Amino acid sequence: MSTTAGCGSLQSSATEVGGERMTDDRPVRDGGTLTVALNADPDKLDPTLAQTLVGRTVFAGMCEKLYDVDAKGKVVPQLATALPKVSDDGRTVTFDVRKDARFSDGTHLDAAAVVTSLLRHRDLAGSARATELAPLKDAEATGPYSVQLTLKQAYVPLTAVLADRSGMVMSPTALKKYGKNFTNHPSCVGPFTFVERVGGDRIVLAKDKNYYDADDVHLDKVVYKPIPDGSVRLANLRSGDVQVGDQMVPVDVKSALTDNKLQLFNSPSLGYQGIGINVGNTQGLGKKPGKIDTPLASDVRVREAFDLAIDRDLINKVVFQGMYEPACGPISPEAALAPGVKSSACPKRDVAKAKRLLKAAGVKTPLHIELKTSTTPEWSRIGQVIQAMAKDAGFAVTLRPTEYATMLEETDDGHYDAFNSGWSGRLDPDGNIASFLQTQGAMNAYGYSDQKVDDLIARGRTEPDAGKRATIYGELIRRVNDAHALVYLYRQKNYVVAGKDVAGVHVYGDGLIRVKDAGYAK
User: What's the whole-model pTM score?
Assistant: First the structure.
């Protein structure tokens, strides 16, 4: 992923929107408050438990990681001082951490704090990091600032894993003091520190005087406001009530193109959006899959029929102005290994075949399905399009708009037929696959279980040869697609609109708005 030079403005043709412009490095002045409009209210502000992209955006302002991702999609040190050293057998990993870092509560960062956070990520009940850190056998401080990890087996994705929430280090003082209530008192190393959260209204961060690079942080405060409706986010941008709009959708981006007071940042996405189907989640997330006695859950022919009823190209055209990309797998073209992964093309809509499959499955039509969707206008439109398409094949889809955090809770508990399931994406393919598709994976809300897929995931994690890994993931994706438990639909672009006077914002392929260097242009 490369950047496009120059600042430019939104006064350009729509065809230019596809170009990548991820940074604005104009000089900025000190002071001021930056208000960022999010498309949903984040879930828990606890790196161990959190699952949402909007939550990651808030974390980007207050919780640094051992490693980060740069503008070119490469992993670089952040709290660690260098990339890790790995033993010949791949089972011992060592790295050092910064000596000048303090958490927002004043506690010094050291190796012991890193160990505490890593083991919490791995072991805490309900941890969304458990699957990606399952290969971690032990972690220990071998010196004041030196960490040694012992792995159960070689684990190729580890560095990429530590460049996200599994690599976020939390204050051991705050963890001991607040325990499960850490989410309301988060303390990490970062340019900004948590001040307050008013549910559904705002999250407020203030410049952290304890931050090791505080002299280069320009803003006094950053405020994150959930505004699910993109047109309302855009209206707030135009009025100046907010200065940055996150996850702007194409229809609003095109509308903004005429406004010379606004600027656009965009980058390719590493993630995907689709529909998750409950095929075995009877006891809740992370529990042993059970049997669900419905045609959709129990018969793959019914799920394939539902998939074949969908026209991905039409969804992209009707809902997203053709500015996204149809998708039928978890690996973005921007991800590591992507060029070598051979996967089948997206299936074309085939209503006749869908009807034949339903007839062969012996189901009575119309077959009723409830589809939970988030309350954004975009998913309302997607739901309506899918509802109409599925009707042609013999499905009667009922839409159930649900506030996003509530939807996560309900789907994690298994209370659904189908729901809009998406992921912001990771550079290493394992980060888009294992937690969702491995049996009892930390975010496998579908209750999906396939021993051959589990074996392929394990092989992909341990195989050091890039070509062989690509072959493994190609086979894995084909097998997952044949199960139709997660129906991939499209891959979005990361569109961020900001006021023209905002500078220093960085938006990379992970979709996060980085505000460390942000401020108002001089």
Answer: 0.84
